[in-house]
């Protein structure tokens, strides 16, 4: 006791506790060491929490006490439900709110415009943790030069003129969906489930939109359907969904990152498709030396990238052979090509499918709106022979269809937690000092549901998007308040693709079937990398028109 006191200068209860502790350590060293480690960890947690809450440069930014560590952010990310909490936080704490030690969420219109458009903040460590296949890619890269180069290469593949060449592929996929749905409705009739109503029944549109968008992106990106609409059993989409959920759950969870590796085996599929396409082209070229293999070429995103790679190589700007340097320089190596096409698969499936499911859900809950949409589309396609699908040119300017999609993306944006960026220099945001390196979530949903910009913000009112019919003539839609596809240099490169796909699919379904809501269903949704209905199920009663 006296030695302890001499060595440490402690007295009283502290001296007694330490002496007792050393005694226990002598008797049971293993459990003693464990206790020591735990005690130190708890003390360290308290030290960090106190620093974070009271002394950190962000400590003056309002927010719940839960922001003392990343624990609660990790829990929110794990469940996928944090997007329901953040709006409450903003109501309580204001337009700038601290959500974790070094993360803030911003719901201010001018600040969001600066973040995304005028200053154009770089992407953050969150994106780096979502990196695919060990490769920088268009979505995750934080390097502005890399991004600029890659975007320049890829963007024309999403321009309207190239997309037009994909329309027949989308039509084919939609035809398969109609046949499958007809078959389901017929089967339900035969089983007597619908009391004898011909070709009527209930369909899980959430599942079908998901499967259809996978088949569409499979065909348009790789030239191969996954057959999900017909069979729903291809391993790649399932593996991909699992691994994306895992990556998203690991973003704020270092223990999970360390212990549970993400299974990226679905990338093999990308590599196989690139090789298969190369082989097919070579075979074609050998058979057809006159036209340089042009006859067997498919028009799809993979072919577009292969051609870009060919051009890069022909101009002497191809890869050098040093894998790391080539990646940093943004060269279109085979690995880059696989990664970007798989990225299209990831970014272009659940996003569009969830948006389509939500739009259908809002429409069946508002039957008079569904009727109005049907009338508009019937007029637009009046010259079509019976049974043919709407052409994109017939419906792309249909104002009510666009209004319904906008309204659904406003209420349920895919980036449900906002989009993360990193503060490049010390700055001030809505009156708060924000140090360089802070991660800032541009909270797009708060703008979408702000009554100053969108009166009666929680209601589905498509006509607010049609100025001459808007029930809010004194509140026209303002610029920089609606960002379903984000904005600035990192906006969604697939926006035109997604709008084309959504318009074609929704118009076809509305023209082909009558639809009714099935009441009392869950419609809550979760966000991992993108968003989806939590139950993966939304039933709609459908009947062939
Ligand atoms: C309704 C459908 C879609 C919505 C709402 C949507 C939304 C978004 C948003 C909000 C971002 C920005 C994310 C961020 O800044 O962190 C984004 C980026 C991106 N999206 Fe989409 N997306 C959709 C469909 C698609 C499709 C169909 C594709 C491709 C086929 C695609 C490919 C991409 C890519 C590659 C990026 C990264 C772009 C870059 O950083 O340059 N998206 N999307």
Give me the secondary-structure topology:
Elements: H1 2-8, H2 12-27, H3 29-55, H4 71-79, H5 82-93, E1 96-100, E2 103-106, H6 109-118, H7 125-129, H8 144-154, H9 160-190, E3 200-204, H10 205-222, H11 228-231, H12 235-250, H13 254-259, H14 267-287, H15 301-314, H16 323-328, H17 334-347, H18 350-365, H19 367-380, H20 392-395, H21 399-411, E4 419-422, E5 427-429, E6 432-434, E7 439-442, H22 444-448, H23 495-512, E8 513-517, E9 525-527, E10 531-533, E11 539-544
Parallel strand pairs: 2-7
Antiparallel strand pairs: 1-2, 3-11, 4-7, 5-6, 8-11, 9-10
Organism: Entomortierella parvispora
Binding site for heme: 492
Region (Disordered): 280-299
Descriptive key words:
Cytochrome p450, 8% strand, binds protoporphyrin IX containing FE, 54% helix, monooxygenase, four-stranded mixed β-sheet, 2 domains, metal-binding, alpha+beta
Helix content: 40-55%
Number of domains: 2
CATH domain fold name of the largest domain: Cytochrome p450
Tell me the total number of β-strands. 11
Mean pLDDT across every amino acid position: 90
Distance between the termini: 91 Å
**Quick one: biggest sheet?**
4 strands, mixed
Bound molecules: protoporphyrin IX containing FE
Record the strand order, biggest sheet: 1-2-7-4
Going by CATH, what is the homologous superfamily of the largest domain? Answer: Cytochrome P450
Pfam families: p450
Family: Belongs to the cytochrome P450 family.
InterPro entries: Cyt_P450, Cyt_P450_CS, Cyt_P450_E_grp-I, Cyt_P450_sf, Cytochrome_P450_monoxygenase
Keywords: Heme, Iron, Metal-binding, Monooxygenase, Oxidoreductase
């Amino acid at each position: 006791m006296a030695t302890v006191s001499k060595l440490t200068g402690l007295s009283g209860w502290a001296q007694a506790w330490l002496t007792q502790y050393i005694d226990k350590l002598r008797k049971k060293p293993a459990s003693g060491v464990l206790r020591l480690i735990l005690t130190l960890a708890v003390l360290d947690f308290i030290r960090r929490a106190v620093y974070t809450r009271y002394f950190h440069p962000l400590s003056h930014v309002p927010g719940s006490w839960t922001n003392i560590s990343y624990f609660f952010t990790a829990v929110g990310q794990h469940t996928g439900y944090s997007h329901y909490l953040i709006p409450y936080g903003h109501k309580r704490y204001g337009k700038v709110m601290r959500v974790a030690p070094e993360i803030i969420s911003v719901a201010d219109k001018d600040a969001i415009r600066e973040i995304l458009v005028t200053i154009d903040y770089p992407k953050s460590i969150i994106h780096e943790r979502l990196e695919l296949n060990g490769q920088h890619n268009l979505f995750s890269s934080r390097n502005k030069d890399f991004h600029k180069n890659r975007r320049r290469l890829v963007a024309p593949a999403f321009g309207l003129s190239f997309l037009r060449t994909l329309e027949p592929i989308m039509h084919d996929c939609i035809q398969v969906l109609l046949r499958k749905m007809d078959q389901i409705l017929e089967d339900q009739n035969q089983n007597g489930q619908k009391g004898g109503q011909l070709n009527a029944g209930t369909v899980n549109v959430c599942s079908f939109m998901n499967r259809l968008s996978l088949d569409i992106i499979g065909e348009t990106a790789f030239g191969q359907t996954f057959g999900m609409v017909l069979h729903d059993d291809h391993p790649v989409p399932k593996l991909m969904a699992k691994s994306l959920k895992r990556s998203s759950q690991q973003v704020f969870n270092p223990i999970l990152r360390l212990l549970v590796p993400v299974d990226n085996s679905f990338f093999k599929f990308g590599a196989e498709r690139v090789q298969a396409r190369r082989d097919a082209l070579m075979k074609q070229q050998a058979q057809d030396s006159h036209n340089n293999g042009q006859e067997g070429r498919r028009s799809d995103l993979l072919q577009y990238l292969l051609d870009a790679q060919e051009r890069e190589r022909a101009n002497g700007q191809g890869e050098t052979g040093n894998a790391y340097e080539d990646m940093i320089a943004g060269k279109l190596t085979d690995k880059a090509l696989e990664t970007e096409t798989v990225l299209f698969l990831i970014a272009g499936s659940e996003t569009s499918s969830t948006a389509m499911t939500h739009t259908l859900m809002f429409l069946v809950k508002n039957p008079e709106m569904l009727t109005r949409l049907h009338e508009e589309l019937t007029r637009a396609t009046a010259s079509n022979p019976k049974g043919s699908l709407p052409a994109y040119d017939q419906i792309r300017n249909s104002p009510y269809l666009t209004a319904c999609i906008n309204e659904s993306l406003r209420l349920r944006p895919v980036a449900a937690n906002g989009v993360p960026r990193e503060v490049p220099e010390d700055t001030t945001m809505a009156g708060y000092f924000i140090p360089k390196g802070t991660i800032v979530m541009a909270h797009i949903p708060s703008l979408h549901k702000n009554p100053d910009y969108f009166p009666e913000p929680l209601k589905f009112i498509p006509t607010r998007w049609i100025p001459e019919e808007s029930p809010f003539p004194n509140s026209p839609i303002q610029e920089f308040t609606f960002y379903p596809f984000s904005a600035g240099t990192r906006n969604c490169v697939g926006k035109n693709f997604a709008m084309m796909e959504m318009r074609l699919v929704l118009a076809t379904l509305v023209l082909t079937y009558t639809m009714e809501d099935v009441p009392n269903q869950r419609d809550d949704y979760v966000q991992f990398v993108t968003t989806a209905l939590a139950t993966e199920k939304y039933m709609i009663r459908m009947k062939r028109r």
